[in-house]
Amino acid sequence: MNTAALNRFEKSAKIFRPIKKFLGPTGFGLLVALILELIIFTSLSPYFLNSTNFSNIGRAMVIIGIGSIGATIVIISGGFDLSVGSVMAASGMLAAFVINQGQPNLVGVVLALMLGCAIGLLNGFVIGYLRINPLIATLAMLSIVRGLAYIISGGDAVVVSNSSFLAIGTDSLFGIPLTVWIFVTLFLSVGFLMPRTHFGRYVYAIGSNSRAARLAGIFVNRWTLVFYAFSGTTAALAGYVTVARTGQAEPSANIGAELDMITAVILGGTSLSGGKGRLFGTFLAIVVLAILANGLILIGVPSYWQLPVKGCVLMGAIIWGELHNASRDKS
Amino acid sequence: MTEHSILRTANLSKSFGSVSVLSSIDFHVDPNESLGLIGDNGAGKSTLVKIIAGVYAPSGGEIFFNGKPVTFRNPQDARAAGIEIIYQDLALCNELDAASNIFLGRESTKNLGIARWLDRNGMMQEARAALAELGADIVPDQLVGSMSGGQRQLVSVARALQFAPKLLLMDEPTAALSNTKIHLLLNLVKNLQKKGISVVFISHRFTDLVAVCDRIVAMREGKISAEIKPADTKPSDLMSIMQTALSGEEVV
User: Fold this and answer.
1) Interchain contact, B95 vs A195, CB within 8 Å
2) Selection from A277, A317, A252, A250 nearest residue A74 by Cα
3) Interface of A with B in 151-180 (CB under 8 A)
4) CB contact under 8 A, A275 and B105
5) Which is the most buried residue in B86, B112, B137, B172, by most CB within 10 A?
6) pTM score, two decimals?
7) For each of chain B's 252 residues, which pLDDT tens digit applies?
């Protein structure tokens, strides 16, 4: 589609203007994609539109969803965190290990979150204080922490039988899976806090111009610690939920999860150069990607085709964004 | 130098590694004074004001502010003492709006139960008032990235004035402005003086300095090479004194 056609399409869609204004151009595009998905998959598969399937979609999306909250924060702040997939595996492993030792569920989750937070702090220290490029620092951490997951378990999967723990991954409340409640609550709380706290404002300020932020008296290094610690903590929670859902902690779990999160963050309109982006965009992207993955399976597309489709969606989204920017700059 | 200099440096020096950038700088700014700082690239003007603003730590010497010795560990310390600086590149966050930039690092908060929350409405209103006072045609929720050079400059001025500074440092504020905008800025500096704010004004443009400054200090190779008061100097002598001070050679 060329920009003229794009403009015509936009003019014809005047009634959507208030929605568009609220969602922004990227969010509006995602909403359109979401509606198209619902229409296409409903018409192509009799199994798509029912509550069981939607519970499945929900359970599938929360793991990447929870982690992508932290990923969004780090990327808006101008950083990058490749270690989250490994953090998920190691934290989940630690939780499984501790619970199997007979410790209460709460101890398991607290220790898992502390591990994720500690790894995040270490990332933040290396990036903020030692001035190592975030891609390299977190790539190294990816290997280190993945190794840690193997070391904790001796290379084997750890099966968890504690029923109260597994209930977190399988129970529902008012017909909606518990894990979806956790994800949505976390997402709404962070989304509510972002515009109202120093944390939220400095994420954008540091991502926009870290030198200006430092000169304005913001302790950029300390906030870098906070952002990566936050990312590590949400990744740890995602790892914990993974184990609760599958009933076992595998050292090889969640390989490549960081790429799924980054896909969602970029698809959601966050700029890789920092300073720009919205948590709600990431949320919509997570939903769009989860429905896409589920729908492709239901209509019988072989699973190998999912990766290229996901890649094309990402590529399409970026081109869409560029075209939109180009048409706006001209007008 | 008067007994009551608002700012004074004694034997101030700065080296980056083995390179000496400033040596034995004895410099002062008097209350209500508008001081011009002139010199070639690399003369050390920017380094001097950045030390005063807490960006760099001096390698040696002392700084007195309001007669008391001070050590600024960071820009936050200098701002708390009442020293503001407008950087050459303005140091604004393009992705934030004008109000967020004006209050950056010093956000107003309100206590609501368990935590301190940003007072977004309060900051928006104060920013609107501050921009209006400068005669700026800027709405406080406009993104700085979408503004013209002159508007951006006004946002950085509003930020510097928001917390009632005693000393304002301006690093090449006219460099990115058109001639009409420069005129407005020079008027602004005169107004600041009336409000009792001392100004240090770095510029390459000697005529700008003569227009607004009570005193002009020239720097060369990390040292102060001349000091003149335009009011006490014959206009015909100004240029030659300056050229001697800047080049280190006698002008015949």
Assistant:
1) no
2) A277
3) none
4) no
5) B86
6) 0.86
7) 456 788 888 888 888 888 888 888 888 898 888 898 888 888 888 899 999 999 898 888 888 888 888 998 888 889 888 999 998 888 899 889 989 999 998 888 888 777 788 888 888 988 888 888 887 788 888 888 888 888 888 898 889 888 888 899 998 887 777 777 788 888 888 888 888 889 998 987 888 888 888 888 888 888 888 888 877 777 677 777 777 767 766 554
